[in-house]
Amino acid sequence: MSNVLIQPYLFSVDDEMWEVIGSYKSTSLDASKTFSSLAVDFDAYSEVVVVCDMANTLNCDVQMQINGVSSSSYFTDGWQIKDGTDTIIDRNSNSSWVIMPTALGQNNTWTAINHIQLTAVTGGGDNNPKCNTMGRAEGLNGGAYMVTSGLRSVETNIDEITVTASGTTFQVGSRITVYKVAR
Question: Is the pTM above the cut of 0.85?
Answer without folding.
Answer: yes
